[in-house]
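Extended Data, panel c. Modelled sequence:
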Amino acid sequence: MNLRQILAYRARAVDLGIGKKLMTGGLPVIIVDDDPAVCEVTSELVRSFYTWGKVFVFTDPDEALRFCQSRRTGVAIFILDVFISASN
């Protein structure tokens, strides 16, 4: 089973209520990149398979940090541009 099949199975599990406690209110994915075009393409790709949580996109790393610090729950995945010019 490849990664896409596993993620599709997990998404179906949410729809059927299997493992509901584990997946209820899925954790978000945070995408941070100073290039809006990269953010758009990356978010479309992630949204195509990550169906049990929201995807948030930020072009400002400080805004992304404030968002994460203000949350009561965790974050599932970060996708970062490690060479953002203003905030290395």
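The radius of gyration is 14 Å. This feature is highlighted in the accompanying rendering.
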